[in-house]
Each structure stands twice: as C-alpha cells, then as structure tokens.
Model the fold of this input.
Amino acid sequence: MDLAARTFFASPLFAVAGASQSPHKFGHKLLAWYHSRSLPVQPITPSTPTITIASTEYTTIASPRELPHPTQTSLSIVTPPKVTIGVLREAKEAGVPAVWLQPGSFDEEGSVRVLNLLDTLSLPKYKIIQNQTQKIDKTLPETKLSPKPR
Done:
C-alpha cells in the first residue's frame, strides 16, 4: 500500500461526500465498500435523509462541517467537479485530515483550483489513474488530472 492510501486509512472514521441511495451510482457503491468492510462511515449528501446499504440504514448529513469528529475522519469525495471545490473548502473548515478524490470528482478545468485548495489543506496531491495513485507535481503546470471516465 502506498503512502497516500496508508495516510488515508490511518483515520479511525470515514465519510463519503456524494453518497447515493441509488445502487447504480458510484456514491452508493463506495459507501457499500466501507460497509462491507465494517468500517465506520458517514454518508454525506443533502438530497436524502437516509441511505440503506444491505439492511443497515445510515442517517446522512449535508456537509463535512456536520461530521461529529471531523479531525478523525478521512473523506472520500465522489461529487461532480463543480461541487468538489465546495466540499474541499468545507472539509478544510471542519479540520478533515485526509481526502481521496474519486474518479469523476475533478476535471481538467477545475484541477488547478483543486490543487491550490489541497495546498491550503496541507495534503499531498494524488490522482487516480487506472486504479493506481500517482503523486501530482504541482511545479509542472502541464500536469493534468485524468478526465472523467465516459
């Protein structure tokens, strides 16, 4: 396991921003992944008050600012790119120590803003490429994040 993943999974608590009740959406599948591994997870979505995985009903919250223990929570983000910037700002305000930008949560247009915001969070910048993490070198302006899969 690489450093980014070890850092992320060192947290005792987890949250999924962009969690969904729809089993066909990645936000639901990601929440189910945490559930199937018995990891303590908090779904974040303003669109529904609860999400059911298997027979477990999770109460949702609308924002990372509502996390009960934000400084102990690693946050997976699976929101549309235009929403991701706001979620990252809220995570910073709440004191979230680690974020994982899932594929589709960023695009080329927003990548520079995301990198700059991650800098203010003092977090290493990583991208996902074919299920592998690679460190992003911010000193290279031509570095581009992987586009949203189609």
About this structure: The chain has a mean pLDDT of 79. Strands lie at 13-17, 41-44, 50-53, 56-59, 73-77, 98-101, 126-129, 132-135. The radius of gyration is 15 Å.
